[in-house]
Amino acid sequence: MEELVRLCKARGFVFPSAEIYGGFRSTYDYGPLGVLMARNVKEAWWRSMVQMRREVVGLDAAILSSPKIWEASGHLKNFTDPLVDCRSCKQRWRADQLPTTEDGKLKCLNCASTDITEARPFNLMFKTFAGPVEDDGAVAYLRPETAQGHFVNFANVVQTEHLRPPFGTAQIGKSFRNEITPGNFVFRTREFEQMELEYFVPPADSPRWFEYWCKERFEWYLRFGIPREMLRLRHHSAEELSHYSAGTADVEFDFPWGWGELEGIANRTDFDLKAHAEASGQVLEYFDQTTGERYVPHVIEPAAGVARTMMAFLIAAYTTDEVAGEARTVLRLHPRIAPYQVAVLPLSKKDTLLPLSEEVLALLQPVTMCDYDVTRAIGRRYRRQDEIGTPLCVTIDFESLEDKAVTVRERDTTAQERVPIDRLVEVVQSRLAW
Ligand code: GAP
Question: pTM of the prediction?
């Protein structure tokens, strides 16, 4: 894990936020490669959840939101964690994250004292004020999940899209939670991105759709390269279920510190639509004109986090091996997830090679994301591309000026092949298996 955090910083995936001021409370900034990778994670999710389906549409609801939403959803009352203080070292903890002694007392993780306060509920919502006056009428909240934005727009979407259950709304966006103990790098932060689908189904069909989405989402991670043995689907026990849920399963990943949640799939029943209908006085139902049937759909919700997914992909892809007696680090990322798919590398900085190299770059840029690197010896440039997960390197050498061909090198095997420039786009596309 330390090695990966080092790589993330050194190669520009993730930087501690406000680092020049000593950092800021477990917040992180995404650097040039992190931005590319996060976009690819979101794009891969959007492609399989929206683009490849006819019954799912997109949505982008406001982050700054009315207290009425959170009152109706139950978040103002229930979205709490049990907070305790250590009287000895004054550290604050989430009670459910502390170990217990043999006689059942909570033990501080910092100083091992068992002099711990009673747990009190701590609401995780970030409260702010909309407008210049900081009074009760101006209170607003930063959303702690994107989900409620789907429910309050249910009638708008049904009316504009003429959708019939089963159908879904998909949304990717920032959420905010005032976590008591953020940590494990970007695993738990106070500001994070979620990718959520709310899938509205006829009530009697909800168990079947819950099973469908558990399977579908588990397989999505396998498809993008996470080995099966690093993944598991864990069903929640009755005591663990959220107040709105009739069944929840987590897709968990085997992180270096143990199993941790990547995504939750919940059967939210009709809880949310009914709660918002009651609080707003609006009708949030589906009316089937062909059968004359009227009902409140049940909701199946697969909800994933961008940073956790990125982290799992990075951990699963991180390998070291030996090439020609030299150790190398390789990120064996899926081509759709890797920050760059191709690196264009002129063998030398000499002016004679650069015009052709730029022509090659211009051929590939419309096809996919390319890096262009003219610095240092070619071997070191290959190592760098291996370390950031670039599946293909295209090298332009002096012979290229004569034979109008380039060398294509594969990250995983390091195998090289000479390819005519006029076939390059076709070869790159087939190697990346778009
Ligand atoms: N609408 C349901 C919901 O928000 P959740 O299990 O609380 O469910 C869904 O969150 C996903 O969002 C989690 O599986 C995780 O990937 C991500 N997530 C939640 N809290 C997070 C945090 N503090 N930091 C990073 N990711 C988080």
Answer: 0.96
